[in-house]
Amino acid sequence: MSKLTDVPKRLLIGRALRSDRLGETLLPKRIALPVFASDPLSSVAYAPGEVLLVLSVAGVSAYHFSPWIAAAVIVLMFTVVASYRQNVHAYPSGGGDYEVATTNLGPRAGLTVASALLVDYVLTVAVSIASGIENLGSAIPFVVQHKVLCAAAVIVLLTLMNLRGVKESGKLFAIPTYVFVSGVFALIAWGAFRGFVLGDTMKAPTADFHIRAEHQGLAGFALIFLLLRAFSSGCAALTGVEAISNGVPAFRKPKSKNAANTLALMGLLAVTMFCGIIGLALATHVRMAENPATDLIDKGAAVGSGYVQNPVITQVAEAVFGKGSFMFVILAAATALVLFLAANTAYNGFPLLGSILAQDRYLPRQLHTRGDRLAFSNGIVLLAGAAMLLTLIYGADSTRLIQLYIVGVFVSFTLSQTGMVRHWNRHLATETDQAQRRRMIRSRSINAFGAFFTGLVLVVVLVTKFTHGAWVALLGMCVFYVTMTAIRRHYDRVADEIAAPETPSDDSVRPSRVHSIVLVSKIHRPTLRALAYAKLMRTDTLEALSVNVDPADTKALREEWERRGIDVPLKVLDSPYREITRPIIDYVKNLRRESPRDAVSVIIPEYVVGHWYEHLLHNQSALRLKGRLLFTPGIMVTSVPYQLESSEAAKLRARRRQEWNAPGSVRRGPVEKRTKEQTGKS
């Protein structure tokens, strides 16, 4: 990469960090909370609205079920948090649900969990950003009018921020996350004070609307199904809980304790905010509809397609603080920003999980290594690309995207907790200390209840959301599963194929003879250098090889060869159809057929150029030949480079880039000058 492209990279993501500075990127709890818990914390901005949207199918009268649905979500949240606290203590290495399922339930279960989490992380980015765009659009109409473009821009921005490193991005995300949490608690406290102490009547902007129910007076099984669907939508508040168990290695020591405390704090904050907004939505008479243009009735007429339905939290803030007030603006801005930043949970979880899967040979090895900012750059870019594609396909519509949501996370919840039950059973079989046994039995009970409850919710989610889009998430999981299985089979097959044998083989036995062939088109400096190099090799036979595509050129080559007295025999291959590659390949293969135990070394002179466009003008025949020869067993291909003058420009750019990358290089001066100074001092 030239300095021209390296400078913008350094300006965007910062200078490269040494590997021994990895410890400096570990997170304290105050930074880890917004980094890993921004998704469940921010979900209170859209999860209450999703509950009311589903209940609106049966009309406003069904809203009185929302507190009971909120209570069920609370129980589920505390169950999941308590269960995952056991996970982070038992498996602090960062594998999270994938490691738990693989260790205790087998590789197939682990791969199922990994597929579910990868899909869920992609959806987290798409849903969070789409919801943030809609919240911001309530204040800035331009944003919602061009929401796909704006969503794509936010994805690019978040990607660049995360490429700068986990700790640096965490510092950027901490302030808006804490402002959002403080704003929601201020909203709940002020709303409660106005309602219970001052006795004020607070009305949302939709309080006077009526809802045209699609199914009036639901009862029996239909009502139960509707409530279960509303509950499954409210479970969106639990997404991202598992990210902390995956990110334990990113915490400062003691890692497990800090991760468990962060998990507990996140659960407490999320539950309080979720319940508070649901309560205020009922108190201010918020009205939401799945099809607002036709189902929301204002003064006897439908509001029409021009109406923009604002999120629940925005309507509640307008009722409590007043539209356009300072606190309303602050909360609206913080809500939109924290929803954007909620995607950061996925930006930390997806690359880390991808690295672990790559280490286990389920994903390409490039995902395992860290980038020059000590972040898993390849995983970050892959996540951004997948989320961008999903955003474009679904038009950045959070209502459509959220139907695909939470399926994957409850698959991982259920399998992880089931694996933890088996984990405790295995340890209880050998543990004799009574205090430890009591602790393990208590932990097993928590995980067993978590497995049962999350499994039940998974069934509810699949039943109520399958036809609304959950099948797409399941299809994505299947695609990931099949792809990762195929990658693992490929790596295993290659590993078996290249494994060093215990007994001597053809690869370790010295060839009987080595035939060296120097490819020649005309006599020039690159050819003479290649011939000189070939003479230094310990070969049994050496010859120069050319192809007769133009009789006049071939004749001139023979005459020049004889005139110079070159002591290497020149062989010319006929080519009636003026091909170069095929005659050489056939000749080399024929040598191998005649002497299978011999090796053939093909030496190719190549130009080294300094500009990208020069590659189009040189070395094309050499590239084709190398590409074909690499597939021929027993053939060794050697390139002998010859540097053209333009290569000096590339060398200079590389030197400048090296000096640019070196911290403090501007202060220390050029490399040559520093070397002379050091030599003089010594």
Automatic annotation (TrEMBL):
Primary site of residence: membrane
Location in the cell: Membrane
The keyword Phosphoprotein appears for this protein: no
Membrane association type: Multi-pass membrane protein
Ranges of compositional bias, category Basic and acidic residues: 669-682
Residue ranges crossing the lipid bilayer per the database entry: 65-84, 111-133, 139-160, 172-193, 218-241, 262-283, 326-353, 374-396, 402-424, 445-463, 469-487
Keywords for this protein: Membrane, Transmembrane, Transmembrane helix
UniProt-annotated stretches for the region Disordered: 655-682
Domain of life: Bacteria
Family matches, as PANTHER family: POTASSIUM TRANSPORTER KIMA (PTHR47704:SF1)
Entry protein name: APC family permease
Upper classification of the organism: Bacteria, Bacillati, Actinomycetota, Actinomycetes, Kitasatosporales
